Amino acid sequence: MGPHRIDVQHHLLPPAYVEAVGAEPIARMIVSGKCPVWSPGVSVEAMDRNGIATAVMSLSAPGLALADTAAVIAMARTCNDYVADMQRDYPGRFGNFATLPLPDIDASLDEIAYAFDTLGADGVCLLSSYGATYLGDPAFAPVLDELNRRKAVVHVHPTESVDANLLGLPAATLEFPFDTTRAVASLLFSGTFARCRDIRFIFSHAGGTVPFLAARMARLERRPDFKAKVPDGVIAELKRHYYDVALSANRFTFSALTELVGIDHVLYASDFPFAGEDTMAGTAAGLQTLGLDPAEISAIERDNALALMPGLQRAEAGAAAPAMGTGGRA
Fold first, then answer.
1. Which is nearest to 91 in space by CA: 322, 267, 273?
2. What pLDDT, in 10s, does the model give residues 270-294?
3. Domains of the chain by residue range
4. To which H or E segment does residue 43 belong?
5. Of 59, 132, 257, 299, whose CB is crowded by the most CB atoms within 10 A?
6. Cβ neighbours for 140, distance < 8 A, ≥ 6 positions apart
7. Does the global pTM surpass 0.85?
8. Per the record, what is one GO cellular component (predicted)?
9. Which residues, in sequence order, are CB contacts of 261 under 8 Å at separation 6+?
């Protein structure tokens, strides 16, 4: 079988971005302690070795960690145009979860319009938090409401919590799943999930600790003030959304996830290049150990993503040479 998997968490590191943000802030968040050496060509070669037909690109943490607002806005556009160039250079191989210059609301609304209307993005990627502000905060409501109006796919990637530095552990180990959980709680109990019912959220890494804590969060429905924010109930809201299996294709995490949601809401993801190619291969291998039948594996690896983002299939079908590119950004 040729490349068939669709990777919904695959990250870009454009040279201009690494130069602006710095290699050290990127490196300190991840287990390797090193900023990955990356190019579009590096991704394509790893994808070909691991049966990945298409990778949906997104910017990972630390995101647009720049002090100057104008620089944040410009870098978001640079990253989005960079992925558009990748799509031209390697037809059919890359999708785009666009970067937004949050916390600037007006600039983010402008970038949503550019990403969808000019670039044809497959969705957007939001970080779990921006400073101490989580996604359900009223400050972000105009952005979430516009994404809801567009019935957008929104991939949520964790970042480092403010002042979180337990024993100097890399943020990716504990703080990333914890921050995803905080973001989900913020979206639940701000009423954002209930209000923005046409957004299809994808949460990274099996939702962080959400599957483990889902019933505990549902206990908050006993309080009328919290219940009013989740009129359909916490569990029903969590079941509506999607979860990727980056770093999660093991029996401990996967069993909890699939007790919460059906297989049709689970998506393959590699977290490359922040997680190395061995992890990319290990995720695919791990799915084979979980007692899934071939149809379920196919759903996770490809079919669910295509149902969620049909544009990926059109891009694949229109690619004259899926495994080859002009090399313009290799």
1. 322
2. 999 999 999 999 999 999 999 999 9
3. 5-317
4. helix 40-49
5. 59
6. 102, 103, 105, 133
7. yes
8. cytoplasm
9. 238, 239, 241, 242, 243
